[in-house]
Amino acid sequence: MTVSIAVYSDYKSPYAYLAKDPAYELERDFDVRLDWRPFVLDIPAYLGSAEVGAAGEVLRESRNAHQWRRVRYSYMDVRRAANRRGLTILGTRKIFDSTIAAIGMLYAQRAGTFRRYHDITFERFWRRELDIESPEVVGAVLAESGADIAGWPAFLAGEGHAERQRLQREAEESGVFGVPSLVIDGELYWGREHLANIREMLTAAGHAKRTG
Fold first, then answer.
1. Is 212 a member of any domain?
2. 148: domain CATH number?
3. Euclidean distance between the first and final Cα of the chain, in Å?
4. I want to staple 176 with a disulfide (CB 3.0 to 4.6 A). Which of 65, 88, 141, 171 is the partner?
5. Angle formed at CA 161 by CA 45 and CA 10, multiple of 5 degrees
6. What is the pLDDT of residues 63-73, one digit of tens each?
């Protein structure tokens, strides 16, 4: 029997970016179906906010010293992991609102082009090559991924907006507070470090795909 795993992700989270490919591997190696869902983080609520100029100078901020130490450590941590895998993670110069890109995820799923859209959006955003707040830019990525974007503006303004809000409410009601988060049989696992544990659980339960 195929196991369904809900995977919550946000394009402005470097930890979600690092979890993307290992999560794909669950579907490759086990009899599981990944149900990818957007979860838009409210980063200023717990880490404050800041805007940094091209030379690294702080233009505006609402962070205390503890929050700055935490942010700096987080980027150091994700870069260590990214370097081992040949990925680029450049610190963002402001806190982005990822709502439009999240709705783009839902549109790509309906168009059957999710994985291509997901990969492009994460990779280019963390290279500072993609504005996830622009409907036109997100629409261009959808088109590049193979989606017919004729219905994108209407979806963004109506159905997609409502669906994104509904999924956010449902996630919060189920206990989701950060990304990456995976939910299996109603049990929540937060953080990419749990992916190894999930692999062990799936193996022990006999869900590994047979090879050869």
1. no
2. 3.40.30.10
3. 20
4. 171
5. 45
6. 788 888 888 88
Count how many domains the chain has.
1
Beta partners for 52?
58
Among 15, 10, 20, 194, which Cα is nearest to 115's? 20
d(CA 115, CA 9): 13
Cα gap 15→140, rounded to integer Å: 25
3-state secondary structure of 175: coil
Radius of gyration of the chain (CA): 18
- Lookup: tokens for 55: 């030379």
The pLDDT, as a whole number, for residue 73 is: 87
Q: How many residues does this entry show for the chain?
A: 212
176-198 average pLDDT score? 96
Alpha-carbon gap, residue 61 to 67, rounded angstroms: 11
Q: Which of 51, 76, 48 is nearest to 64 (CA)?
A: 48
- For residue 47, the tally of other CB atoms under 10 A from its CB is 19
